[in-house]
Amino acid sequence: MIDQARQRAREMHTRLTQEMQNLKQKRAEGVNATRELRIVEELRALARRTEAELRPSDTTRAKLRRVQSRVLDEARFLRQWAESPLKTGAVAPSGQELSRLMAGYVELDRPGVIVELGPGTGAVTQALVERGVPQERLLLIEYSSEFCTLLRERFPQATVVQGNAYALGDVLDDLGNPPVASVVSGLPLFTRPLPERQALMSAAMAAMSPGAPFIQFSYALVPAVKGLVGITWSTSRWVIANLPPARVWAYRSDEGVAAVAA
Ligand SMILES: C[S@@+](CC[C@H](N)C(=O)[O-])C[C@H]1O[C@@H](n2cnc3c(N)ncnc32)[C@H](O)[C@@H]1O
Questions:
Q1: CA gap 104, 25 in Å, rounded
Q2: 17 CB-near residues (< 8 Å, 6+ apart)
Q3: Residue 224 CB: number of other CB atoms within 10 A?
Q4: Among 176, 52, 70, CA closest to 121
Q5: Strand, coil or helix: what is 87?
Q6: How many CB atoms lie within 10 A of CB 171?
Q7: What is the average pLDDT value for the chain, to the nearest integer?
């Protein structure tokens, strides 16, 4: 069974290599094929990763199911990205190393819910659960209805809200303003204007006690949120293995200072 799956992944890789060359040829002839090329390149890389993960010595169904599930998640992600690149913000879910690094910033002893903004297919959510966060403490706010359905299946005890994470204050109001222990965000913040990012950060800080972290991963060299009084940040090491390489930013507010635009 594993051998057949590897063979299919290999054939897919060969076909996609051919398609990639066709598209490069079209581009050389002046046809705008940049988006198609990016999709085909990602699918080709996905086929290669799938083949590499399915070693001939792996005989268990469980292994095959795990790989299938991961590949399906990557394909779902890629489709969402192709439909709306700015909202999805990445072509693939965060890898395990980055997800675990994000989850490591959550302070389990702080009382309150742990809010995840833009959980996608649940890569970071899974790392949070593995870190010891009970699903009941999770509030997941996600735009995509397809991802919300998946999240409800995977984390049945978590609260999943399909909606706009930038309306965090309203979502918390609707839920009776529970105390918030940490905010974990996978949102592609740079696709929104700075005042919107600042407003989101201010709403998050207002819901948390001073010093609680707003945890954000980013591929950028500069902070996504700046110009707020009383907010400091620290950054992690780079996770080179992630696609693309990323690092974690933890923003915190000072005691007794409201996070407002400077
Ligand atoms: C870069 S992906 C990160 C997904 C996941 N956290 C991960 O690390 O694999 C961004 C996610 O944020 C979601 N998203 C983007 N804008 C959003 C918004 N305004 N409200 C809620 N979700 C949003 C996208 O649908 C996507 O699932």
A1: 46
A2: 44
A3: 20
A4: 70
A5: helix
A6: 19
A7: 89
**What single-letter DSSP state applies at residue 84?**
-
pLDDT in tens, 25-60: 888 888 888 888 888 888 888 888 888 877 766 566
- Beta strands 180-185 and 113-117 are parallel
- CB 197 within 8 Å of CB 227: no
How many CA atoms lie within 13 Å of 150's alpha carbon, on the beta-carbon side? 19
Whole-angstrom distance between the N-terminal and C-terminal Cα of the chain? 60
Query: Is there an atom of ligand 1 within 6 Å of 213 CB?
Result: no
pTM comes to: 0.83
Which atom of ligand 1 is found nearest the CA of 89? Answer: 1
Instruction: Match 């709403």 to its residue by tokens.
Output: 203
Q: SS3 for 257?
A: coil
Tell which one of 84, 143, 168, 242 to mutate to probe ligand 1, the residue whose CB is within 8 A of the most ligand atoms. 143
Indicate if ligand 1 lies below 6 Å from the C-beta of 225: no
What tokens were used for 250? 């933890």
pLDDT score for 203: 95
DSSP helix/strand/coil, 19: helix
Task: Quickly list DSSP for 177-217.
Answer: ---EEEEEE---GGGS-HHHHHHHHHHHHHHB-TT--EEEE
Among 183, 260, 172, 188, which residue's Cα sits nearest to residue 214? 183
Our answer on whether the CB atom of 166 is closer than 6 Å to any ligand 1 atom is: yes
Q: Which of 54-63, 88-97, 239-248 has the lowest mean pLDDT?
A: 54-63
Half-sphere exposure of 96 (CA within 13 A, CB side): 3
From the list 225, 171, 172, the residue with the least C-alpha distance to 199 is: 225
